[in-house]
Amino acid sequence: MTATEDHIDRLPAPALARPTSQAERVADLLRTFVIDGALAPGVRLSEEKLSRKYQVSRNTLREAFRLLSRERLLVHHMHRGVFVNRPTSEDVRDLFNARRSLELPAVRGAGNAPAELVRAVGAAVDEGERARAEEDWWRMGSANMHFHEALAALARSERINEFMRQVLAETRLVFHVMAAPREFHDPYLKWNRRIHLALVEGNAETAAAELTEYLDTSEDQLVTAFVELERTSRT
């Protein structure tokens, strides 16, 4: 069995639901696998195996691949196939710019957010704390993605939710490249809790200030690591 076959065999089989077309549903499913860490950079996506596993046509898969290629999650290499993309340090910088544009206004405007949206932020922190207690660092990474998704959801916009899922899928690929989930997630869990508590107390500006420092610190850490990785790969 090849590495590609092994990755695809281990993918879960949730119901294809939500978006309108079959290709969009498949794209959403694959995007979720990237966000949750089930698909890593460099993995080749076999049309044959995915078509058989999810009972969709190859034409549907190809359209889903095109959608995700436009989101920079997949890349097509001539005569080799479709692969999960591998981000660069410049991608990291651009992703954090996008995240600031999506997350910070949502948090600043969260003073009147429905209680269930604030609870969703707390539930993601709870998920991360459970993962840390079990030393499940990859699940902690998934919980962190859910935390930031919940922050963007405070904007109460389906379009922002959609954009955020795309950005977080790319962000998860960044953490996959680093392959050190504890180092890049554990230090931020207490920060997540502080942001949640500020939201619970109605201190949206405090939460936004915490998030601003959080994103700056995380970007610096990741860009530094990526630049060093790229420098080493060139020598």
Automatic annotation (TrEMBL):
The keyword DNA damage does not apply. Keywords: DNA-binding, Transcription, Transcription regulation. CDD domains: WHTH_GntR (cd07377). One of its GO terms (molecular function) is DNA-binding transcription factor activity. Residues 20-87 form the HTH gntR-type domain. It holds the Pfam family GntR. This is DNA-binding GntR family transcriptional regulator. It comes from Nocardiopsis metallicus.
